[in-house]
Amino acid sequence: MESAPVRPPTTPMGRESVLRARPEQPLRDAVAVIRDVLEMAKGRITVFVAFTAAMGLWLAPAGLGLTRSVLFLAATSVLVGAANMLNCWIERDVDGLMRRTCNRPLPAGRLDPTSSLALALVMAAVALPALLLATNLLTALLGFAALTVYVLVYTPLKRYSPRALEIGAIPGAIPPLMGWAAATSDLTAPAWALFGILFLWQLPHFIAIALVLEDDYERGGMQVLPVARGEVVARGMMFLYTVVLVVASLAPAALGITGTAYLVTASILGAGFLIVSITALGERGQKVRARRVFFYSLIYLPILLSVLVLNAR
């Protein structure tokens, strides 16, 4: 006698358990793709860059209006994301050689390179006209310059020269200029003071990273300062750039765009930055001390800029 076929449970609870057992693979795949795209776009960096653009907008003597401000920040974020994705696409072979980057979406094979490139180009093609429509020609040109320098100059130059450090700091410091230009259609001394702080902060910050990860950068063929010129030169340049940064950080108070609270904060934070940079000049525990400079720089900039915005005149 044949046995009766086994049927799935027909009770409401039984049906629910069967549904739970079915994997929602398409949904999971979509979420994974979105997560990988955001990783390529470097979401946290993009958010911070949008903040610096908003800072320039906030500190400018003229306003842009709520709607245009939102459109400006959205277009800036999309443009930054596109630049980061293009950077990842160009460096996908190098990323595969380095421990800290080998699990990124492209070297790990989770995203298709052609599709990623197409998406990045579309994002840039949408963001630049959106900047022009939301603000003005100067802002759009600044955005185009940042994209071009970052993708076409800085990214390939890292394989050949340590001067890529200074070149790469330029696009990283342009967003506050964009915010200021969006509101005023002009670039005056206070805007350049904001640019100077962000430009100079990146130099000791990234030298510290290069010192800590020197072996990884050498494995990837990146001519960062410690690899190309040696650790002693790199530590000396890190300290020198820190000194110039601390002096430049006082400029907003001197120009009258912020008040005494910022001046005091910048002085205290700057003294701390100088101390950790001086300790990194020593021969012993060099990587540990460089790591301290890196972590201090992560604390330094958000506090400095937050007080600058809150204490604005």
Topology record:
Blueprint: H1 12-21, H2 25-40, H3 43-59, H4 66-90, H5 92-95, H6 113-134, H7 137-157, H8 164-184, H9 189-212, H10 214-219, H11 225-229, H12 231-248, H13 251-254, H14 260-279, H15 286-310
Task: Describe this entry's structure for a reader.
The chain has 313 residues and is an all-alpha fold. The chain is 76% helix and 0% strand. It has 2 domains: 148 residues, Tetracycline Repressor, domain 2 (Orthogonal Bundle); 126 residues. The longest helix has 25 residues. The N terminus is likely disordered.
Largest sheet: none
Structurally, the number of domains stands at 2
Class derived from helix and strand content: mainly alpha
Arithmetic mean pLDDT: 90
Offer a concise description of the structure.
Helices cover 76% and strands 0% of the residues.
List keywords for this structure.
single chain, mainly alpha, Tetracycline Repressor, domain 2, 2 domains, disordered N terminus
